[in-house]
Design goal:
Blueprint: E1 36-39, E2 44-47, E3 51-59, E4 62-70
Antiparallel strand pairs: 1-2, 3-4
């Protein structure tokens, strides 16, 4: 991105309650504005282009899965 952004930022989250040992598939949508920034030259919001790294975890200190998606 052409402007400074945090190295890691929260873009979406979901919450499920599970019994010990249980698992469940969870889908978390990442809205386009979560990977956008305000461009002072165009006076508009601009979305990230290209590859965006995504991390999934129980917390920012407990990341369990990483991948890349195209913005």
């Amino acid at each position: 991105m052409p402007v400074p952004t945090p190295a890691v930022q929260l873009a979406g989250f979901g919450r499920v309650e599970l019994e010990p040992g249980a698992s469940e598939r969870v889908a978390v949508a990442i809205p386009r504005d979560a990977v956008s920034y305000y461009d002072v030259e165009s006076h508009d919001f601009v979305s990230a282009q290209g590859a965006v790294e995504v991390h999934v975890g129980a917390s920012s200190a407990d990341l369990r899965l990483s991948g890349t998606v195209q913005a």
